[in-house]
Amino acid sequence: MKRPGGGLGKSQPKRTKREADEVSSLESQLGEAAGAPADSQDVAKRFDDLPISEYTKEGLREAGFTRLTAVQRAALLPALCGRDLLGAAKTGSGKTLAFLIPVLEVLYRRRWSSMDGLGALIISPTRELALQIFDELRKVGKQHQFSAGLLIGGKQVKAEQQHVNGMNMLVCTPGRLLQHMDETPGFDCSQLQVLVLDEADRILDMGFAQTVNAIIDNLPEERQTLLFSATQTKSVKDLVRLSLQDPQYIAVHAEASAPTPLKLQQAFLVCSLEEKVDMLWSFLKTHLKSKVIVFMSTCKQVRFFHEAFKRLRPGVPLRCLHGKMKQMKRMAVFYDFCEAKTGMALFATDIAARGLDFPTVDWVLQMDCPEDVPAYIHRAGRTARFVSGGHGLLMLLPSEQAGMVEALKAANVPVKSTRLNPASLQSATSAMQALLSKHPELKELGEKACAAYLRSVFLQPNKAVFDVTLLPVAEFGLSMGLSSVPQLRFMRQAARQKQAGSKSRTTLSMHGQTRPEEAPDIAHAMVTDSPQDPAMPEGEAATNGDAGDKDQHSLHDLAAARAAMADGVDGPACQSASDAEDEELFRVHKSGFGAAETVAEPDEQSTHGPAAASASDAQRKRKKRMRIKLKDAAANRKVFDEEGSALDPFEMLAREEAMGKAAADLPETEAAARFAQAAVALKRKDADDRAAVQALKRQKKAARKAKAQGQDEDGPGIQLGSGLGLEEGSCDDETDRPSRHRPSSDDEDHADPAEAEAARQAAARRLKLAAKERKLRSDPAHAGMKAARIPSGLSGNGGLDVGTLTLADQEAIALRILGAQAR
Ligand SMILES: Nc1ncnc2c1ncn2[C@@H]1O[C@H](COP(=O)(O)OP(=O)(O)OP(=O)(O)O)[C@@H](O)[C@H]1O
What we know:
Layout: H1 12-35, H2 54-62, H3 70-80, E1 85-88, H4 95-109, E2 120-123, H5 127-140, E3 148-151, H6 157-164, E4 169-172, H7 174-183, E5 194-198, H8 200-203, H9 209-217, E6 224-229, H10 236-241, E7 248-251, E8 264-270, H11 276-286, E9 291-295, H12 299-312, E10 318-321, H13 327-339, E11 344-348, E12 363-366, H14 373-380, E13 390-396, H15 398-410, E14 415-420, H16 429-438, H17 440-459, H18 473-479, H19 489-510, H20 552-566, H21 580-585, E15 586-588, H22 595-598, H23 602-608, H24 615-626, H25 630-635, E16 639-640, E17 646-647, H26 649-658, H27 660-663, H28 668-710, H29 753-778, H30 782-789, H31 807-822
Parallel strand pairs: 1-6, 1-7, 2-4, 2-5, 3-4, 5-6, 8-13, 8-14, 9-11, 9-12, 10-11, 12-13
Antiparallel strand pairs: 14-15, 16-17
Bound molecules: adenosine-5'-triphosphate.
Adenosine-5'-triphosphate (ATP) binds near residues 72 and 96.
């Protein structure tokens, strides 16, 4: 492919003559094909047999493509004949060529040249996918003389502006394309012949709605439109938006038993939130030779776990990919992970979920529950591409299990239950705690990651699956190495919403109605892997391309899928992961995936079941979580005496610090009595402090209110995005998912200046504490200094009278304990 002005070679006249002959021959072949009834068409199996140009055939041969895949067989001929298409086929089934070949051929047959301007637009939701499509276009279009450009964000728009007007084909992300439409003088799409939307359902969803509508307004209505995705839209609204003309729906795998590749072995694992970190750690440690993609909900989680695990060295190279990275770094990581043959783990947000064709990925681990079934399918589809096999593992919280498993089952996704082998679980918690206490910046990142995850759960619309009020926040924080988690206002909001919901549910129940999530027949049975569809060649699997679609059509499909499940369509139980290491880490349930396998454990049910979700319960739990758990944090950490017996840290402190060295030799019963006494007093003091803090808060709130009343009613306005924010503008800042529910940029949810100020002060306090903590560890003379301060709280008999300790002193004690533990 050449740039405009590159000129044709010396053989131009000869080539033009040959081209002209070829074009007229192709036109007549395609004319005949278009006129023939669809079922009588002889579908080519090899690219050489297709009515396409020699240039394209040559490009395909050089790239190593000889035989067509199912989606290519179904889509190529109608697309070459000029039909609008809605193409749906499983992940990794070769959809990219199914639209690239028609793009090249349409322009070739219309004798498109550099003088004709922009003839084809290919829009992709992410930069990496655009890059990948562009690379493939360059390969198969190598012999053609069109100019092609890649327009993605993260680069200087000015540099692109110099070339963009001469391009015949553009591969782009929606934001950057719109930016050129708005800002580049002379940018003209009026002659556009073909528009392609790859991952069409994603591009047409709400996150990109405004941008895509604006783009379509700039395009001519007379054009060919090709839409492709593994989870295709059938929404009439979308089709009207795109002015499709009599589109042909290509769903090659619609009759298949599963919407995912057959060679993809899928399992889900139920674990509590606080077990996830250990799970991830253990997974990496037991899959050192595997190429793994780990999907997390938010950019901050990806950053945090990448930074933390990198320092802990699991023994496998780690990479991360998320939307907040610089473009150069993103591309470097993309190519790096592509080139890795084995033994590498990529932590990523959903930015890597669609379309990316990383070779030889062994495992896709979905550490956080995907938004919905299509999101699951796309993430899992990063492995088992084309004819390769692969494994997918989905981690579900007990509260997510019923809803997500039901949805996957309804969409015929053959995912089986697996359980962790406790013997192979390696804990990372203490290492994380030690790491975070050494690196305050990492601790801060951890707090943000924790908050971002909770926020992402809070913002999920499907409350039947995502219920932030059921999450054990403090325990989760501890498992990440955090001694405390930030207080988040949306958690209160979630509890309020839930309370309101449960009230209305009560009212509904009183009227004899039942909400869907309360329906008694929550599925417990798991589906199993299905036998290969005999009609599919080359190991291709069959799919239900619209699985999990959210519009009314999909409801229909889901109902049909449920019926199919009830009819026992699915085949024998899926083979468990073959690796010995996987066997070791997971105990796969091989026996029929019956009810017992997926039912939550009894204790899980009592904690996370509907009964536990009553409003008053939730409120009580929330309050408990919000409390500063100074005592709890300490109580979770044991210290050891010289004989190695575990002691409560306060007891140790009472022995060593408050009572002096001699007191450490007190009879055990007396020490225990004093400790109990001290604990009661500490509790009393804690209650007093809390009351004082509450009073102070009320006072501040009243002052704020008074101040606000005196101010102008017009607060700072909300600034909406310009719409030129490139593709990031269409994604949620945090999750890289469609920005259906864009969170504010600040994790700690500070809505007003006073709150922001309070947060700043809290942050300063945290930093001060962290500095203190560091000092405590590094300064050998420190023990003496502390001992000198603490006696202000000593009672006359040498015991620790916490009733006279200030909150600061209590904090110092806690830090002292942490310090002692770290040593
Ligand atoms: N006809 C073919 N012969 C051999 N390999 C092919 C053929 N078509 C596609 N491939 C290869 O199959 C892999 C998957 O193709 P592609 O990325 O187009 O899948 P996809 O259906 O677009 O997947 P996704 O839904 O994840 O975007 C790629 O590595 C591609 O090079």
